[in-house]
């Protein structure tokens, strides 16, 4: 039956779309804070959103864990497990990336609270400044 596979595909596309939105939003907020570090009010905006950003990163990791579990179940329903490990390893890498990003955000905010400076965006894996 195709419905479980189609449902999985829809969930995966939904996850990818929300991932892109999250990355774009975080990049914009971080760049705004980084470029205006001396303006404490503007830089604190990053601190204000940090809890939500941290939670979204954790949520992305949890969703990937669930997608990994569903993928494995669907794959094994129709295939031998011969190539499954390499695909599951990619899920694990993505999950770890989101967990690392949560840690980097916490460390960047701790640095800001201690020194009043933020790491360069490139140092924590943020892409070039988005165009407005």
Q: Which value, in Å, is the CA radius of gyration?
A: 18 Å
Category by helix and strand content: mainly alpha
Low-confidence stretches: none
Helix content: over 70%
Q: Which geometry do the CA atoms define? A: elongated
Share in β-strands = under 5%
**Quantity of strands, as a count:** 0
Brief account:
The protein is mainly alpha-helical. The chain has helices spanning 3-35, 40-78, 84-115.
Account of the protein in words:
It is a single chain. With 132 residues, the protein is mainly α. The protein has one domain. Helix content is 79%, strand content 0%. It has 3 helices and no strands. It has helices at residues 3-35, 40-78, 84-115. It is elongated.
Primary descriptors:
132 residues, mainly alpha, 79% helix
Write the layout of secondary structure elements.
Elements: H1 3-35, H2 40-78, H3 84-115
